[in-house]
Amino acid sequence: MDAYQSVGVRRRLKRFFRRDGRALIFAMDHGFEHGPTDFEPVWEHVNPRVIVRKVMRAGVDGVMMLPGIVRMAGDEVKPDRGLMIKLTSKTNLRPKDEQLLQSQLGFVEDAVKLGADAIAATVYWGSPAEDVMMRQFAEIASYAHDLGFPVVQFAYPRGPYINEKYGKKEDYRVVMYGARAAAETGADMIKTYWTGSRETFAKVVDAAAGVPVLLSGGAKTENPVDFLKLVWEVIEAGGSGAVVGRNIFQRENPEPFIKALIRVIHRNEEPEEAAKAEGLI
Ligand SMILES: O=C(COP(=O)(O)O)[C@@H](O)[C@H](O)[C@H](O)COP(=O)(O)O
Q1: Can you give the CATH number for the domain in which 159 is found?
Q2: Fewest 10 Å CB contacts: which of 55, 161, 190, 237?
Q3: Domain containing 64: what range?
Q4: Beta carbon of 244 within 6 Å of any ligand 1 atom
Q5: Mutational pocket test of ligand 1: of 216, 220, 247, 251, the residue with most ligand atoms within 8 Å of the beta carbon
Q6: ipTM for the complex shown
Q7: pTM for the full model?
Q8: 29 lines ligand 1 (CB under 6 A)
Q9: How confident is the model over 241-259, as pLDDT tens digits?
């Protein structure tokens, strides 16, 4: 028989994924991590209740937020969607070299009290502060697993040595390394960068050895079809979906865009076809 906790981890993880094993998750930690200027393109979305209501209506599978935003807008998250609460972050206000550390800003108990279905933390693999973030992740994961909660790792290679050795943090060799390190540290879901091609992203998925790998959205693309194409490549590479923030909340009318993303992720529709069906082109 399974330990009780294993059942909890599996059940909660399923709240994010549809039967196809894929998910579209809305990310909204930007007010803290990038600053409220990220919301300026569509200022009404600075209010989490407004944007969360829209993304729920459009059909996202889950949301990711920091604890205080869950307190403000958690009631808007429908009970049949996954709620991911992230317990580490950093502001953009720190001195640059200290931005290679994410600090813990909440505790597993807080996430449990707020009704989390999964608990997330970032590790900047290769950062001078890697040791601190590894420990944070280990402590969060150990306690969360004990209580039956899955853990999500934002596995981001980042730091001066990576730049020196690989030229950029999106080099597939380091993204793949980060994904592997996430799997080896007990992550139940991994969020990471796009590596630039289907072939290289497929290697990242392989390196994660069965732990679902989701794309971290990135900056908004002017042409919505370009982002749909990117997500299409992720799915073709064996990725399990995407965690998307700016490409959703920086659009004046995010609902048809989300519906098009759902068509690509869950119905295997080609990007142009999905965009046409939702009136984006
Ligand atoms: O991971 C984050 C920031 O990463 P960054 O330091 O900007 O590379 C999160 O703030 C976001 O949740 C994540 O980037 C997803 O949001 P978008 O990139 O799609 O806006």
Answers
A1: 3.20.20.70
A2: 161
A3: 4-278
A4: yes
A5: 216
A6: 0.95
A7: 0.98
A8: yes
A9: 999 999 999 999 999 999 9
